[in-house]
Amino acid sequence: MKKEKIIFWTATIIIALFEGLMPALTSQTELAKEGIRHLGYPEYFGNALVVFKVLGVLALVITQVPKRIKEWAYAGFAFEFLFATISHGAVDGITGQTFFPLVVFVILAVSYFYYHKLNSNKI
To answer: Which of 12, 39, 64, 98 has a beta carbon 3.0–4.6 Å from 111's, enabling a disulfide?
Structure first.
């Protein structure tokens, strides 16, 4: 059980850093705004995305959040990573940057798998 908790929290903290802390701290930089514009999205989309990322991270890391809300957070992040991959591929072609969201998606999948593994015994 200890090994599973370590794997779960390691994966979840990586997601929290990439999807909560970094966007919250850097979303208003010119580089971040240019990244959103480069993909063809309006600036307000980036702002909304940051709000939902932070809320999703809070849902994942706060243990008292109901399971159903956590499921929605996992689903939201999964869609985000898949659509980020599609957006980068459509705009920039197939590059290393295209597949980076899929790497984070795998980390999210590890967190999700171990979340359910840890909570399968609790009814």
So the answer is: 12
